[in-house]
Amino acid sequence: MAMSTPTTSTVSRPRRKPAATKKVREPFGDRVFLVVITLMLAVMLALVLLPLIYIVASSFSSATAVSAGRVKFWPVEFSLHAYKVALSNPQVLRGYYNSLIYAVAGTLISVTLTVAIAYPLSRKTFFGRNVLMTVLIFTMLFSGGLIPTYMVVQDLGLLNTRWALLIPNAIGVWQVIIARTFFAHSIPDELYEAATLDGASELRFLRSVVLPLSKPLLAVLVLMYTIYQWNTYFDALVYLKDPDLYPLQIVLRNMLILNQRNVGATDVAQQLQQQQLANVLKYALIVVSSLPVLIIYPFIARHFTKGVLVGAVKG
Amino acid sequence: MTITTPRPSPPAGVTRLRVRSPWRRNAPTRRRSRWAEAQRSWRLHWQLYLLVIVPLAYFVIFKYIPIGNAVIAFKDYNVIQGPWGSDWIGFKNFELFFTNPVFGTLLENTFILAFYLVLASFPIPIMLAIALNEIGNGWFKRTVQMVTYAPYFISTVVVVSMTILVLSPRLGVVNDGLGLFGIAPINFLGDPNYFRHIYVWSDVWQTAGYSAVIYMAALAGIDPALHESAKIDGASRLQRIRHIDLPGIMPTAVIVLILGVGNMMAIGFEKAYLLQNDLNLAQSEIIPTYVYKTGLINADFSMATAVGLFNSVVNLCLLLLVNFAAKRITGSGLWR
User: Fold this and answer.
1) pLDDT at B3
2) CA-to-CA distance for A204 and A197, rounded, in angstroms?
3) What is the pLDDT of residue A118?
4) Which of A180, A229, B92, B194 meets the CB 3.0–4.6 Å disulfide criterion with A118?
5) Does A19 score more than 80 pLDDT?
C-alpha cells in the first residue's frame, strides 16, 4: 500500500496555495464544490454529535421532564439527581471496580505476552519465524468456535473466576502484527550488534535497548488492550455467573437493555416515580460509563491512529 | 505465505567463497541446510525461544485445542467420555441443522445483514476522508475528525442502549422528529423489518470516522506533484478527486473491501444479541446468536459446535475465494 507518511492530521496539505499566489481565486465551480463538501461534513458532524448531546442533555434533566419526553438537546429542569443515584448504586460501583481490575491486569498480561512473541518474530535471524507467524495468522482465519473454547476454559477451571476475562483473549494477533512491524522497522540491526559486542544477552538487549526505544508502541498496545477490556462484555456473559465479578458493561447491559432493577415500591405513585427515575438513570449511566474513555480520548487519538496505520502496512 | 528465511550473513571476519565452482564437488553450497540454520539460531537466540514459550502455549491452548475440540460436532458429546471418547455420529448434527426450518432463516438473516453491513460501511469513510482532505487544515477539519472518531471508543453496550433510547417510540428524539411531519411514532425495535437498518447504520455511525483514518493516510501518501500538474492543466477539484485521489486510494480500498467480505460471516455477536428482542427475532436471529443460545443456554454442545463449525468453514471459504479473486483482478491479495 502506498503509505509512506504514517501521520494524517499533521501533514500540511500539499495542494494549498503558497502565500504569494493568494489573490488567484479558485474557479467558480471549485468554490461551489467546497461549499457543498463543507455542508456535507457539517451534516455528518451533526449526525454524530446530536445523539451524544441528546444523551448528555437528558442525563442532566429532571426525571419528570425526561419521562414526559420534553428534553431535546438542552437540559430541562436541570438536576444532578440521576448522577447521585447512579453513583450510589452498589452494582454500578462494583462494576466500576471490577472493570478497573480487568483493565489494569488484563492490559499488563496482554502487553507482556504480545511483546514476548512479537519481538522474536521481528528478528530476521530467528529460525522458524515464518512458521510461527503462519501459526498465528491461521487463528485469524479459522477458529474452533464458541463452545470448543468454552470447553477448554471449563477444563482449566477458569469458569466463573477473574482469570476467565484475562487469559482466554489475552493476545490479539493484530496487535502482534503491529508490534512486530514496529520492532522490525525501528530497531536497527546495528544496535543489536553493538550490544552483543558489549556482552549483552538477548533478554538484556530487549530490556535495556528495545523496550526503552519502543515507548510509542507500548503506548499503542496499552491503549488498545485497555479499551478492549473496558468495553467488552461477551467474555463476561459467557464465562461469569457470579454477579460480584461482573464488569461494568454487564451491569450496564442488565440495567439499560434488560431493564432489571430492584422493585420495592408498592403503591402506584411510588412505582411511577421509580419508573421515571429508571428512565433518567439510563442516560446518566451511559455518561458515567463512557466518560473515562471519552475524557482520555482526545489525548490518545493520535497514538491510536498511528497504531492502526502501522498495522495496516503490509509486512 | 511462502516460507523463505533470508540467508544469514556470515559472521564478521569469515570470508566465504561466493562463486560456486562447478568442478569442485564439495564446494560450499550457497544455502546452508535448514538444520544448521536452526542450530545457529538456537545458539544466538535461545533466550528468545524461551520467551516465546508462554505466548505460544496460549495460542495452542486457547486457539488450537478448541479446533481439536470441534470434533464434537461429529459426536454425541457427553462430559464423562470427553470430546475424543464420545461416540461418533458422523454428520447427523449437520443433517439435523440443514433440515431444521430455522436453517434457511438463519442463513438468510446472517448473509443479508453481513452483506448490507459491508456495502453500507464501505463508501462512507471514503467520502468522509476525501471531503476532509479537500477542506483546509482549519479548526473545522479537526473538529469533524475528532467528533466522528469518538464513537469508536464507546462500548457496544452503550451504543446499543443509546440506539434504543434515541429510537424509543415514546421518548426518543427520532420519533419526536417524525412527529413534526405528522408521522405516528414507530416502534423501531419492535419491528423486525427495521432491525437490519438499525444494526447497520448504528455501526456506520460508530466506525465511519475510525475507518476514514486509513484512507486519510492513503491520501496523504499521494504524490503532490500529480495534483500540481493537474491544476496547471486546469483540472477542477472534482476532476482531481476522480482521476488522482480515487485511483490513489484504490489499493487500500480493495484490501479493506476484501477484509470486509472475507470476515462477513464473523459478524459480531455482541451487537446483534443486544439489539435482539422477542419482537424482532424474525430478522435478528443470526448464526452466532443461535450458536450461543443452542450451546450455552440449551447446553447442546455438539449441535452448537456443528453450527459454529459450519459458520467458520463458510467464512474461510469466502475469504479464500475473495482473496483469489482479488489476486486475479488487482494482482495483489492479502498475502503473497
Assistant:
1) 45
2) 13
3) 95
4) A180
5) no
Return the number of CB contacts < 8 Å for A and B. 323
Contact with chain B for residue A94, Cβ under 8 A: no
How far is the C-alpha of B227 from the C-alpha of B79, rounded, in Å? 67
Mean pLDDT check: name the lowest of A25-34, A141-150, B84-93, B255-264: B255-264
Other C-beta atoms lying within 10 Å of the C-beta of residue A61 = 23
Residue with cell 436453517: B103
Judged by CB atoms closer than 8 Å, whether chains meet at A3 and B156 is answered as no
Q: How far is A23 from chain B (nearest CA, A)?
A: 16
Q: How many CB atoms lie within 10 A of CB A94?
A: 17
Q: Distance between terminal CA atoms of chain B?
A: 6
Q: Minimal Cα–Cα distance from B44 to chain A, Å?
A: 8
The residue in chain A having the minimum alpha-carbon distance to the alpha carbon of residue B1 is A134
Residue scoring higher pLDDT (B178 or A266): B178
Grid cell listed for A108 = 499488563
Banded model confidence at residue A293, pLDDT cuts 50, 70, 90:
confident
pLDDT in tens, A64-87: 877 777 777 888 888 888 888 888
Q: How close B25 gets to chain A, by Cα (Å)?
A: 28
| Under 8 Å between Cβ of A183 and A118 | yes
CA-CA-CA-CA torsion sign (B304, B309, B315, B318) = negative
Interchain pair B3, A15: CB under 8 A:
no
A152/B166 touch (CB, cutoff 8 Å), yes or no: no
How far apart (Å, rounded) are the C-alpha atoms in residues A182 and B322?
A: 28
Residues (pLDDT < 50) of chain B are 1-17, 21, 27, 336
pLDDT per residue as tens digits for the range A228-246: 999 989 999 999 999 999 9
For chain B, which domains are there? 34-88 (no CATH), 92-330 (1.10.3720.10)
Cβ of B135 within 8 Å of Cβ of A282? The answer is no
Distance from CA of B21 to the nearest CA of A (A): 27
b (16+ CB within 10 A) / e for B42-80: eebbeebbebbeebbebbebbbbbbbebbbbbbbebeee
* pLDDT score, position B30: 52
Residue B232: is it exposed, middle or buried by C-beta count within 10 angstroms (0-12/13-18/19+)?
A: exposed
Amino acid at the residue B42 = W
Which CATH entry fits the domain spanning A82-315: 3.40.50.300, 1.10.3720.10, 3.30.420.270, 3.30.310.250? 1.10.3720.10
Do A124 and B150 make contact, defined as CB atoms within 8 angstroms? Answer: no
Mean pLDDT estimate for chain A: 83
Rounded to whole angstroms, how far apart are CA atoms A182 and B136? 31
> How far apart are the C-alpha atoms of A186 and B283, rounded to whole Å?
49
Q: Is A160 on the interface with B (CB under 8 A)?
A: no
Residue boundaries of the structural domains of chain A: 82-315
* pLDDT reading at A21 higher than 60: no
Q: Can you give the pLDDT at residue A9?
A: 47
- ipTM surpasses cut 0.95: no
